[in-house]
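quick one: hypoxanthine bound model?
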Amino acid sequence: MTTKAEELAGLIRDRAGAAPVALGLVLGSGLGHLAEEVDGVAIDYADLPGFPHAGVSGHNPKLVIGELEGVRVAVFGGRAHYYESGRGDAMRLPLEVLKALGAGALIVTNAAGSMRADIPPGDLMLLRDHINFSGLNPLIGEPTDARFVPMKDAYDPEMRASLTAAAEAEGIALRHGVYAWYSGPSFETPAEIRAIRTLGGDAVGMSTVPEVILARFLGLRVAAISTVTNMAAGLSDEAISHEHTKAMAPLGAAKLERIVRRYLRGLVG
Ligand code: HPA
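yep, here:
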């Protein structure tokens, strides 16, 4: 762990209390409501030196530490995307801080375009694997042998089973699929979408994969859920835009919240 992460964890403990955090949550575009549900302390990223700017509209760059369903969580209301800075490791420090706060697990959420007719907008998809279509890696430049992170079962099978059970208990359809990371910020072309689909992708988005790689590097268990906001480029007549993403994300967000809450109750009970 870097000294910087330890220092920031100390600063956060001073403000939010010393009890260790069990789990981190990264909230995707338009999925910020959950942060408001946490009974705890919100700290602006701007007050955490070295935290990314995370300035994409639809995100709320605050770290909220507190209780949700009896579990001590750290909720990242904003994420830094590769396309904002050209840095694939933009979320490294926040995730190191999460680890330094004691967390053993992370749930990442995102908004995504679907490439499957049976996963329409408004549906949720639990990631069972990913394809790094960008060719980038957040661990480029990491000098230690720890950089050779195995990625089989990167999406923790036990967490996936528990989240699946939580969705079933809530009566919510949770699809399973493969997420393809495309760097953005431009959306994909229809030809790219056909290519990604042919390669085995089920949903496509501009985030998550670097965070999952970093989290595995740090030894955190990981799960990730996409809220489908649109059919990917060329698969429907609907125009794709960030406005549309933000407008559609709340459709899935309410379901996502119920699943996460049920999952957390399962950790306690
Ligand atoms: N492509 C990439 N990212 C996205 C999309 C998409 O279609 N929808 C929401 N985020």
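The first strand starts at residue 23 and ends at 26.
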